Automatic annotation (TrEMBL):
This is Methyltransferase. PANTHER family: OSJNBB0011N17.9 PROTEIN, S-ADENOSYL-L-METHIONINE-DEPENDENT METHYLTRANSFERASES SUPERFAMILY PROTEIN.
Length: 104
């Protein structure tokens, strides 16, 4: 991450910030749930469960841009608020953030 930040900032010193979905202290609700999971004895899915509706080449699918919103407005607001708390402002000198999951 540090190397990517240096490359993005033209070699200027930078700080890395990693956003995480972990609570600041204690055990997360997800970890609590996963402590006592009862897994099935047999794998519950058939190979057909993993087939796609459209089995054509992914190249065809990705050849045209698709600018869609995958989450609703309240979720976007919640993420924006979370990011504003855990990430530095966009104009912070020496900071570069690579968003590998962004769309448009």
């Amino acid at each position: 991450v540090d190397q990517l930040a240096r490359m993005a900032s033209g070699g200027a010193p930078s700080r890395s910030f990693v956003a995480a979905a972990r609570p600041r202290q204690g055990v997360s609700p997800v970890e609590q749930i996963l402590k006592n999971v009862e897994w099935p004895d047999e794998f519950p899915f058939k190979p057909d469960d993993f087939s796609r509706f459209d089995e054509s080449s992914d190249t065809v699918f990705y050849s045209a841009p698709r600018f869609v919103t995958h989450i609703d407005d309240p979720a976007i607001r919640a993420l924006t608020e979370y990011y504003s708390q855990v990430l530095p402002p966009s104009n912070t000198p020496g900071v570069a953030i690579l968003d590998m999951c962004s769309s448009w």
